[in-house]
Specification:
The complex is a heterotrimer of chains A (463), B (243) and C (190).
Chain A lengths: L11 H9 L2 H23 L4 H17 L1 H14 L3 E5 L2 H15 L3 E4 L3 H5 L2 H7 L3 E4 L2 H8 L16 H11 L11 H18 L2 E4 L3 E3 L4 E6 L3 H7 L3 E7 L3 E2 L5 H12 L7 E6 L6 E7 L3 H5 L15 H5 L1 H6 L10 H12 L4 H5 L9 H5 L6 H11 L4 H14 L2 H13 L13 H4 L12 H8 L3
Chain B lengths: L1 E4 L3 H6 L1 H13 L3 E3 L9 H6 L2 H15 L4 E4 L2 H14 L5 H9 L3 E3 H8 L12 E4 L3 H6 L5 H7 L5 E3 L14 H4 L1 H17 L4 E4 L2 H13 L5 E4 H6 L6
Chain C lengths: L2 H13 L20 H11 L3 E5 L4 H9 L4 E2 L23 E4 L3 E3 L4 E4 L16 E7 L3 E2 L2 H7 L6 E4 L4 E2 L7 E2 L6 E7 L1
Parallel strand pairs in C: 1-11, 2-3, 3-6, 4-7, 6-11
Antiparallel strand pairs in C: 4-5, 5-8, 9-10
The chains are: A alpha/beta (463), B alpha/beta (243), C alpha/beta (190).
């Protein structure tokens, strides 16, 4: 059983320092992120109207959020009309209680799961386990994480930090039916997972999913996937429970024409993902429950700058292009939402009370690559900077920044400081003490010039 | 044309040679250069590190100092992007500050923008007989969208061999205070960038931002790699007479 | 207060001062494609599915050839000429394959969409067997995603299929064949 990230100690810089020293991890991440970057770029370039799709998607999401109350009520009516049951959960505990109750009502003690960020966010598997219910992850990468007693490290590909040889070892150890001769070819590993899960799919009575989109107008839920484990879970069991964040809404059926173009190309770099399932209410004799999850989302919604994070469709394009993520992997972020989107979403959903969460807005060089690829145009650097203004700052840093602000606030003070620096230029050690050693551990300092530009100008140019 | 030079606090304090290069280059191209002495800093470090109030004070100072000029030229993509992209987000719509930003921000140009778009010149008469690679810094590339302007300028420099930099669009890892707040990641990014630079076999690494070059140059020097870093302005200012 | 009322109340307070939004729909809602069937076939082939483009008259023989020796599920409502003479069954267990029609197909993305209508079976029937043969009529092929969305009825259970089951979970490389049908074969009847 994989653990949850909640209450993880440490902070991003410390976690990251450990991660960058792990050369196997660095290699795996580099290979995977560079592969997907290239694929994304080529399928995005195929669409001449990408910019227009992106602008429309951003506006549709903003409009949905502006009237989220109305659309949620509309969705509830449509789902109910189609024979489904709608539940509302203020937070993780309430959602877990609702789902546990629904599973218990079926009399089952096992459920199959389709990969879902929302259920990871609320720690549903652990909550179910406390009530004697075992949740089996069926997505290949989730299975790898679950069997490896590991944490997910990517939104789309939770086992991105593992390479084929490591996956083979996990399978051999944790799936008893797997033959010793298993090769580490991806096709063979996928086949082993197929055999491992086949019977479970056919006999499971309850499935739990999330959803990529919910359509307010029609009550339709949409799940995009690749392997067919989603179709198995959504179709075969007698009871389906979907736990979905309230921001996953789209107003109208037509809006899918935008998002079904943007999401697959942004996430797996395909023109279309292998399978997309859409269902409305209770379908083909199934019992259907929809749990609408807030869990901090309405707090995010209240923030004028930060609310754009709720446009996120979890494509993970921002992770794949992020130079920081590429070098640290997802675990350093201590959240089910890693990478650039995690750095703005986690501190908003959880607050910045812990050292880890307060360090996340700084887990970025503000290079802007994430904003460029975001299919719903979330200005991640803008939100990061805004969160930094709200984050708690250490006393030493505060004092240093205050002095710097005072010096820079007036040209005479700045000139004086520059002359002082020039006077001691020969005395600066190669390695600086204290927090500035962070610079000189790996980099030389620039030489301080004999005089500043402004003094030079004053001497030579002032008319 | 009368232009104000916004030197930026980093260049002013640590890289005066870049400022001198801008002055000589712009004069060679017929501009009258003014250096408003009251200028200090755009406030980027404070804003981006989470000290917005201090940053806003510096931004207000900036708009006061540079109000009334036809053009303000900065040898820094990052600081120019701060003024143009971030200032409008720091002010309340309809406020006096917003009006001041609306007046000044659009006139602030990064050097290569000013040369190519305003002066409409690509051959600046420079001579620099060396192998050079160019690193497009993030704020020049994705903030200001400088595109190939710097490359167009460099490719017209006589004697200069411009070698393409692999993975040029990737961040070098400087990121302002990121370099000291997340030193391990910053250094790892810097090391990868430097590896790409060394792979090109150049003598000089060029960029439009001395802050990124300070990080990369510091990494190169620590490795005793033998590659020099130079600001774009310094290459463009070099002529057969001066070089 | 119920969770529902509380969440709706929080939302109303949160967006009180948020601006209204205009939605620019300047993207392409239809795409001019000279040869939609050709593009569709090419894109399906990119997913490593097998594609045959055949005159309508030749389809029955092709289906017969492909289903020979397999235990096929033949869903209700499938035109007789597309059954290939397979002994029509609906039983999931023991079936090797399924032959269906579709509701719509998308050229740009190489996608077929099933809506559980006549000749398309239940969702389980096209999922559990390892082989899926789908016959697409040329007039069902639209150029782009928006054109497909416009043709579909969201109240029906919809399954969008783009190639065989696949995963990118190992090193972000696409590998065909996980839980869904490992072989997808498409006949476009022209």
């Amino acid at each position: 059983m994989s653990g949850t990230f909640l209450g993880m100690p440490g902070n991003f810089p410390k976690n990251a320092e450990k991660a960058v020293q792990n050369s196997q991890l660095r290699f795996n991440l580099r290979k995977a992120t560079h592969t997907i970057r290239g694929k994304r770029a080529s399928v995005v370039a195929e669409l001449p109207d990408w910019k227009e799709l992106r602008a429309a998607a951003k506006a549709v999401k903003d409009e949905t959020l502006r009237h989220l109350d109305r659309y949620l009520v509309q969705l509830e009516e449509a789902v109910t009309r189609a024979g489904g049951h709608v539940h509302w959960a203020r937070d993780a505990a309430e959602a877990n209680r609702i789902v546990t109750g629904l599973v218990q009502a079926t009399g089952e003690s096992e459920v199959v799961k389709v990969k879902s960020m929302a259920t990871q966010e609320i720690g549903l598997n652990e909550a179910l386990a406390e009530h004697g219910i075992t949740a089996y992850e069926t997505d290949l990468a989730e299975l790898i994480v679950q069997l490896g007693d590991d944490f997910p490290s990517h939104i789309l590909v939770p086992a991105i930090h593992r390479n084929r040889a490591e996956i083979r070892e996990i399978f051999l150890e944790k799936m008893p039916e797997t033959p010793d001769g298993l090769s580490d070819e991806p096709a063979a590993l996928a086949e082993a997972a197929r055999l491992h899960l086949r019977e479970r799919f056919l006999r499971s009575k309850v499935a739990i999913s999330g959803a990529n989109f919910m359509i307010a107008e029609t009550g339709t839920l949409v799940v995009l996937e690749s392997e067919g484990n989603g179709r198995m879970c959504l179709t075969l069991p007698e009871t389906l429970i979907s736990v979905v964040g309230i921001e996953k809404l789209l107003p109208s059926w037509r809006d899918l024409e935008i998002f079904l173009q943007l999401l697959p190309r942004s996430s797996t770099g395909e023109r279309m993902n292998p399978y997309t399932s859409m269902w409305t209410g209770a379908t083909e004799g199934q019992e259907f429950h929809l749990v609408l999850l807030d869990n901090g989302r309405t707090d995010v919604l209240a923030d004028e700058v930060g609310r754009q994070a709720l446009r996120c469709i979890r494509c993970s394009a921002c992770l794949n292009v992020c130079p920081v993520y590429e070098r640290t992997g997802g675990h350093a972020y201590g959240s089910v939402y890693p990478g650039p989107i995690g750095a703005i979403l986690t501190p908003q959903l959880r607050g910045m009370g812990s050292e880890l969460d307060a360090s996340l807005p700084y887990a970025s060089s503000l290079c802007g690559a994430c904003f460029d690829v975001c299919p719903v145009a979330i200005d991640i650097p803008e939100v990061l900077v805004d969160l930094r203004a709200k984050a708690p700052h250490g006393a030493a840093e505060r004092a240093g920044m205050r002095v710097a602000g005072w010096v820079l606030g007036d040209e005479a003070r700045l000139a004086k400081a520059q002359r002082l620096a020039s006077r001691v230029r020969g005395l600066v050690p190669r390695r600086l003490p204290g927090p500035l050693s962070a610079w000189t551990d790996t980099r030389d300092l620039p030489e301080i010039p004999e005089e500043s530009f402004r003094d030079w100008w004053e001497r030579h140019e002032r008319p | 044309m009368r232009v104000a030079l916004f030197i930026t606090c980093v260049n002013d304090t640590l890289f005066p040679g870049t400022g001198k290069a801008v002055v000589s280059l712009l004069r060679r191209l017929g501009c009258e250069v003014d250096f408003p002495a009251a200028q200090t800093c755009c406030g980027q470090m404070h804003v981006n590190t989470g000290y917005r109030a201090d940053g806003v004070r510096l931004a207000r100072h900036f708009t006061e100092v540079f109000s009334g000029y036809d053009a303000v030229v900065a040898p820094s993509g990052s600081c120019a992007a701060m003024v143009r992209e971030q200032y409008p987000k720091l002010v309340r719509p309809g406020s006096r500050g917003a009006a001041a930003v609306a007046e000044v921000a659009p006139k602030v140009y990064e050097l290569s923008e000013f040369l190519v778009d305003v002066l409409k010149v690509e051959d600046v008469g420079a001579y620099f007989p060396h192998r050079v690679t160019y690193h497009p810094t993030c704020h020049s590339l994705r903030g200001l969208r400088l595109g190939d302007r710097p490359a167009r300028l460099l490719s017209r420099v006589r004697g200069l061999e411009l070698v393409p930099l692999p993975a040029a669009d990737e961040c070098c890892g400087f990121g302002g205070t990121f370099a000291v707040k997340n030193p391990a990641v910053s250094a790892a990014m810097g090391a990868d960038k430097v590896r790409n630079v060394l792979g090109t076999g150049v003598e000089v690494l060029c960029a439009a931002d001395n802050s990124c070059l300070m990080h990369l140059g510091g990494t190169l020097d620590r490795q005793k790699a033998g590659v020099r870093v130079m600001h774009l302005a310094e290459i463009l200012a070099t002529t057969e007479a001066t070089g | 207060m119920s969770a529902r009322e509380e969440i709706l109340g929080r939302i109303r307070r949160a967006v009180r001062d948020a601006p209204e939004v205009e939605i620019p729909r300047d993207y392409r809602t239809s795409v001019p494609v000279d040869d939609p069937v050709g593009l569709f076939a090419e894109r399906v082939d990119d997913y490593r599915a097998v594609v045959h483009v055949l005159p309508a008259a030749e389809v029955p023989a092709k289906v017969a050839e492909l289903v020979r020796g397999r235990r096929m599920i033949v869903p209700d409502g499938l035109p007789d000429e597309w059954t290939g003479g397979a002994a029509g069954g609906a039983e999931l267990s023991g079936a090797d394959g399924v032959v269906t029609g579709c509701a719509v197909a998308i050229a740009e993305t190489g996608t077929i969409v099933l809506d559980a209508g006549p000749g398309q079976g239940t969702r389980a029937q096209t999922l559990v067997p390892d082989y899926h043969l789908c016959v697409v009529r040329a007039d069902q092929v639209v150029a782009s995603v928006p054109e497909a969305v416009a043709r579909l009825d969201p109240v029906r259970p919809l399954t969008w299929i783009s190639g065989p089951s696949a995963t990118s979970d190992i090193e972000l490389n696409r590998v065909e064949g996980v839980h869904g049908p490992r072989t997808l074969e498409v006949i476009v009847s022209i």
